[in-house]
UniProtKB/TrEMBL annotation:
<dbReference type="InterPro" id="IPR001451">
    <property type="entry name" value="Hexapep"/>
</dbReference>
<keyword id="KW-0012">Acyltransferase</keyword>
<comment type="similarity">
    <text>Belongs to the transferase hexapeptide repeat family.</text>
</comment>
<protein>
    <submittedName>
        <fullName>Acyltransferase</fullName>
        <ecNumber>2.3.1.-</ecNumber>
    </submittedName>
</protein>
<dbReference type="Pfam" id="PF00132">
    <property type="entry name" value="Hexapep"/>
</dbReference>
<keyword id="KW-0808">Transferase</keyword>
<dbReference type="InterPro" id="IPR011004">
    <property type="entry name" value="Trimer_LpxA-like_sf"/>
</dbReference>
<dbReference type="GO" id="GO:0016746">
    <property type="term" value="F:acyltransferase activity"/>
</dbReference>
<dbReference type="InterPro" id="IPR018357">
    <property type="entry name" value="Hexapep_transf_CS"/>
</dbReference>
<keyword id="KW-0677">Repeat</keyword>
<dbReference type="InterPro" id="IPR051159">
    <property type="entry name" value="Hexapeptide_acetyltransf"/>
</dbReference>
Length: 254
């Protein structure tokens, strides 16, 4: 026989679940870091409307970290300046992040020497950027005990870096570059390029003379006009639904 449902217990469980969700939402709002509410962090600069989501990843060396305005730093993002906490790194910033940058959940930016991320860059989740790499020159010493190599990293403005990409020391990425998911980037990448693979190679590039080569396979999306009102957008959505319904009626197998 089916078990009798305990209505009172189910009601209590739903109430407890709502309380937990509401409490966690409050914790996330309260724990996020902004210029107005920096908590224990003392960044070299943090611009207006920039927010670091809670829970944060590892953050240290923040006096040498400068964050621009209108940045979104996702949950569990690691931002570090220097090899370890509590070092004096001198008068100049080590990690510079421009305005309007989005760092996806779980990403890491490790700046043991200078790392610069230009404005309006968007990172997917779990991107790894580092200015330091292990060295293995001495075959008789464990690699982890050998002094690492450090080279500055620069990512130009307007780039899109896909999920799980790795940006290695010495990388110089131009403006408006697409880094494919899972790519491993080292060396110099020109402006307006698409790179993919490990190690990453240029697979498409735009120039004023030739446009995109190889040509794009799909047409560019049409942006929403600036003067379109919310009411007009809703009306367009209703028209789309009506058109889909009519097509389904004409072709029931489609």
């Amino acid at each position: 026989m089916p078990k009798r449902k305990n209505t009172f217990s189910s009601w209590r469980q739903r109430l407890a679940q709502r309380a937990v969700h509401a409490g966690w939402a409050w914790v996330r709002r309260t724990g996020s870091v902004t210029a107005e509410h920096p908590g224990r962090f003392r960044f070299g600069a943090i611009g207006e409307h920039t927010r670091l989501a809670f829970p944060l990843g590892t953050v240290f060396g923040e006096p040498w970290i400068r964050l621009g305005s209108y940045c979104i730093i996702g949950e569990q993002v690691t931002l570090t300046a220097g090899l370890m906490p509590d070092l004096d790194l001198g008068p100049d910033p080590i990690l510079r992040i421009g305005d309007g940058v989005v760092l996806g959940r779980g990403s890491h930016v490790i700046a043991d020497t200078t790392v610069t991320i230009g404005s309006d860059c968007y990172f997917g989740p779990y991107v790894y950027v580092t200015s330091t790499n292990h060295s293995y020159d001495d075959p008789h010493q464990p690699i982890g005990k050998q002094w690492p190599r450090m080279e500055p990293v620069e990512i130009g403005p307007g780039c899109w870096v896909g999920t799980g990409a790795v940006i290695l020391p010495g990388a110089r990425i131009g403006r408006n570059v697409v880094v494919a998911a899972g790519a491993v980037v080292r060396g110099t990448v020109p402006d307006h390029a698409v790179v993919a693979g490990a190690p990453a190679k240029v697979v498409r590039r735009w120039t004023p003379d030739t446009g995109w080569q190889p040509p794009l396979r799909t047409p560019a999306p049409v942006p929403i006009p600036d003067d379109l009102t919310p009411g007009q957008l809703r009306a367009l959505a209703d028209l789309d639904e009506e058109a889909v319904s009519r097509l389904a009626a004409l072709d029931p197998d489609g």
